[in-house]
Structures are given as C-alpha cells and as structure tokens.
Write a structure and sequence with these properties.
The protein is α+β, with helices and mostly antiparallel strands and about 575 residues long. It is built from 15 helices and 17 strands.
Length: about 575
C-alpha cells in the first residue's frame, strides 16, 4: 500500500486535471455550438428575406408593367399599381416570416406616395435617403438596413433591400424592393440563449452597429469596446479571452456570411470553467478518502479473493473451450460470489441469445422470401403500359399512345442494371423524355440534334446528358417568354468526345454557375452529381463547363474520353420487346 498509494494519488490528480481540461473544452464547444445553431436560425431568416426579394423582383406582372412606358394620368397609374399589388399578394406567392414589404418604383411619379398604403409606391419620399442610394449602388445585391422605425407601424425593424433589375435589360433598374423584419424575430431566436449565469449574446452588423442586444436601449448604437473591433476584424468563427471592466471574459463569435453580421457571445471566464474546478476539488477529496479506505481494508479483502478467483478462472477456461453448460460456484455472499453469480447469469443469457439469433435468422429468411414473393415484376408494369398503349391506339388517342410508349421506354432505360450505355441509347432516351415534355409545353419548346456521324457507339455513363437537358428545360426555357429551343450536339476531337447542350433561355450569371457546380442551389443538384461522377471515373481533366449570360441562354459542354463499345456488347435497353 505504501508503494501504491502515491502512484494512485498521482494518477487521480492527473486524471482530474485532464477531466477538468476536457470539461473546459466541452464548455467552450457547447457555447460555440449554441452560437452556430443560433446562426443557422438567423441564416434561415436572411435566406427567407432574400427569397422574398427574389420572388418580388421576378414577379411577371411587376416586370411587364415597369418595363412599359410610364402612365400619363393618375387613373392609369392606379390601375398599374392595383395589378402589381394583386400579383404580389397572390395566395402562396410569398411566405409570411417578414413584417411587411414595399416596392419603390423608379420613374413613376404618378404612383401613390409612401403614406398612401398598399405595397407599391413612387420613390419621392425615399430617393434622397442614404440607404436607398446604397441599395441602388449594389446593382441587385441585397443591402441590409440597420434598426429603424417604420411609418404607421409600432416596433423596431431591420430591412433587406434590393434593386429590381429588368429581365429584358439587366442594365436598367426598375424599382427597389424592401422587406422588413421585426426585431422581435431576432429576439425569438437569440433571447432564449443562456451562457452561464450572466453571459449574453448580441448581434452586430459590419460597422459594429447593434442589431440585437438584451438591452433594447443599445439597438442601433455602435459599441466602442475593443473586443468588438477585434471580432469585426476576424473572419469565420472563434473565441478569445479579454478583460471587460475588472473581470476576465470569454468572447465567442461567428459570422453570418451572407450579411457580414457577427453573432457574439460574452461569458465571464469563471462561469465557463466553474464546473471543472468543482470536479478537481471533489476528485482530490475522493483520492484521499479512497487511499485511507484501501489501506484499512486491503489485507482483509486480499485474504478472501485468491481461492474463489482461482475457481472462477477455471470455469472461464472451460467456457473459452466452448462448453457453455459449466457454472461457477457461488456459495458465499462476498464480492467474488456476486461476480460468479453474474458470470452464471451471463452464460445463461448467452445461451438464450444464441437461441434467439437462430430463431431470428429463420424469421428473417422467411420475411425475405415473403418480400421477394410480394415484389411486382417490372415486366408486369411494362405489360400494363403496353395495354394502355393499345387502348389509346384503338380509341384514336395517339398523343396518349405516344406518351405511354415514351414513358415505358424511359422506365426500361432507368431500370437497366448497366452503368454505361452508348451515345445512341442515351440520345434515344432523351428523345423519349423530350417527347413527353413537348406534350406538356406544346410549341413553347423545340429541340435540334446535331450528332457527328460515327460516334453513336461511343460509351458514356448512363444518365449523363439527361440531367443537362432537364436543367436547360426547367431553368432555361420554362421561365422564358416565348418559344425556346434546345440544341444537343456532339463531335470527336482527338481522343476525346465533346457533347454540348445549348438553350436560348433566360441564362444566368457566373456566380450562379459556380453555385450549380458546387450543389448549393437545390434545383441543380443533378449537375453536381454528373460532374462528380465523371471526375471520379475519368479524372479531373474531364467534366462539365458552362457559358451563360442573363437573357442570352446557356451552353453546357461535356468532355469525355473516347471509348468504343464492342459490336457484340451493344444491346438496346428500351426496345419494343417484352
């Protein structure tokens, strides 16, 4: 005991030190995670404001009206405003997380002034405001206005503003949209956060102006503390130790990237690490008491351990050989007997578990068989579609027949286990897809194929071109006014094949293209998956490239290595047979 006690004490002290450090780190991580979760909630509000601004700016009635010549009389102006108001407030058009929204139309002096009510106004009362000028300077990017009051509304607000550009000519600014969020929305997100007993959070913009504080009197003020300057000069998230007044204080911060806002947590150092010090004290006390108890009882305990342990060890060796029927002797009431009883119960439980595993395995096999029996044969679906096709033909509904035939071909193509197909097969599947879409859109869309001769049997990954065509249709032609066209072309160049999907749709900016390839825009996830598949399979020199301008369409180019399919290895996937 004289040899063991000092070593046990040292181990206990080191363990308590490590535990205290771990708890301190956990406390820091917990606070950081709390701020990150609050940041996510703030980002959702920012995203909703941005989405609302986008929906307003893309409203068809607003765009068409403000792109037309200004009205020459108040009656015509009133009719225009009414049409825009009805369009913007159409049920389901906008979410309701914001408090209100406004549209300040440029070059529309006959539109009602700001105090008149509604949603659309002229810019006479705001055009000289600094926030209005900054919004116009940002050319379509969101400007965030700090805490301010609103006419005829109680409370304090922050606003997201964006210049509305003409979809026909992006150089022309039609109006400025403003979406107002009540400060109470930020209070709902941040007001319930507790950091220790007296810690608190605040939200500041890029200039250090307070957007949220537990003290309402500080809203809109600029905090002059040195720690705010340090936070504003730092990127991302982090924490540091500083002195506020006469107390050491931990400062945590994270950044809302879309706005540049800083979410800051202020926590007294003693409150953040208090639990760790309590654990250290209790651990030291436990070490001392345990050492004394061990010294008093060591001899008495040791004398009754050796023999029962030897017997228990012998039983364990029998179990190790595979005999689960043996049992340990548990005649007394000491700790070794408790251990022996527990060991016996464990053996009994293992025997039961083995039986349960055998029974469960049998039931699983039975369930798998029943599931297999319940599966619908894909050929049954093809036969049903074929029956619908013949019924449509017999009744003269050739458009239904064509759509059903195309759908059956797409199903057969999708269910094929092959990972690679010939270019010809992929093109045929796209024809079926576009045939269905033309029935939806009628003469609004058309397509052209320009595939160089001799490349039909080149192998490509299945579903490589179809997501590009779908993206061109949904995001290029569908928002376009008037008829649109998709051109699919392909040619060989050296040892590579180049496939292009080009549309004359609405186009987009370079930044949006990068977001497509990064998968940040949910509607373009297919493009990111195509890009990743190609680079993983063939290397970084292959993949997608984009060229697009707003209002002038989009060209997507796909580069793949040339690989010819063997003659006996080419099979039609979606033929007419069953």
């Amino acid at each position: 005991m004289l040899l063991l006690v000092p070593w046990l004490s040292a181990v206990g002290f080191i363990s308590s030190f490590l535990a205290a450090r771990a708890i301190n780190e956990q406390a820091l991580n917990t606070i950081s995670q709390t701020l990150e979760q609050a940041k996510k909630n703030l980002v959702s509000v920012v995203d909703e404001v941005n989405n609302t601004l986008f929906i307003i700016s893309m409203d068809r009635e607003l765009q068409e009206t403000l792109n037309s010549p200004a009205p020459q009389d108040e009656f015509s102006a009133s009719q225009e405003v009414s049409r825009i108001n009805r369009s913007l407030t159409f049920p389901g058009g906008l979410n309701r997380r914001y408090e209100s929204f406004k549209v300040y139309a440029l070059s529309r002096p006959l539109y009602p002034p700001l105090w008149a009510g509604g949603y659309v106004f002229n810019d006479s009362m705001v055009k000289e405001e600094e926030w209005f000028k900054k919004t116009l300077e940002l050319q379509g990017k969101t400007f965030w206005r700090g805490p301010h009051a609103e006419l005829f509304k109680a409370g304090t607000f922050i606003s997201g503003l964006r210049a509305i550009k003409s979809v026909k000519n992006y150089q022309v600014t039609l109006a400025v949209a403003s979406v107002e969020v009540n400060i109470s929305t930020l209070a709902d997100i941040l007001g319930g956060i507790t950091l220790g007993r007296t810690g608190y959070v605040l939200l500041v913009d890029k200039e250090g102006r307070v957007l949220y504080h537990r003290d309402p009197q500080k809203l809109g003020t600029v905090i002059q503390e040195d720690y705010i300057s340090r936070v504003l000069g730092s990127a991302g998230a982090g924490n540091f130790l500083t002195t506020l007044g006469d107390r050491k204080t931990l400062i945590f911060y994270t950044t809302v990237e879309a706005t540049g806002w800083k979410l800051v947590g202020v926590v007294p150092y003693k409150e953040a690490g208090g639990t760790a010090r309590v654990i250290q004290n209790y651990t030291l006390l436990a070490i001392i008491l345990s050492a004394l108890a061990a010294a008093l009882w060591a001899y008495r305990i040791a004398s009754g351990i050796t023999q029962p342990l030897g017997k228990l060890l012998q039983v364990m060796r029998e179990v190790e050989k595979g005999d689960l029927s043996v049992r340990a002797e548990a005649a007394t009431s000491d700790e070794i007997s408790v251990l022996a009883s527990g060991f016996n119960r464990m053996l009994h439980r293992i025997e039961g578990l083995i039986g349960q595993v055998v029974e469960a395995t049998a039931k699983q096999k039975e369930a798998e068989l029943k599931t297999l029996q319940a599966q619908v044969n894909p050929h049954f679906l093809y036969n049903v579609l074929e029956s619908i096709n013949w019924m449509a033909i017999s009744r003269g509904a050739m458009d239904i027949s064509k759509m059903v035939t195309s759908l059956a071909g797409i199903m057969r193509y999708s269910l094929s286990p092959r990972e690679e197909v010939t270019l010809k097969e992929e093109i045929e599947n796209i024809k079926r897809y576009l045939a269905i879409q033309k029935m939806r859109y009628g003469e609004k869309i058309d397509y052209v194929l320009d595939i160089a001769p001799g490349i039909e049997n080149i192998l490509i990954p299945k579903f490589t071109l179809q997501p590009l065509v779908e993206n061109a249709l949904v995001h290029g032609l569908e928002p376009k006014t008037g008829k649109g066209e998709i051109k699919i072309s392909g040619y060989l160049k050296g040892e590579d094949i180049f496939l292009m999907v080009e549309d004359n749709g609405v186009g987009c900016e370079e930044g949006i293209i990068q977001e497509m390839l990064a998968g940040k825009t949910g509607g373009h996830l297919g493009l990111k998956l195509v890009e990743e598949r190609i680079k993983i399979k063939f290397g970084p020199s292959y993949g997608l490239s984009f060229h697009s301008q707003p209002g002038q369409g989009t060209l997507v180019s796909l580069r793949l290595p040339r690989r010819e399919a063997e003659e006996d290895g080419v099979h039609e996937i979606a033929g007419g047979g069953r």
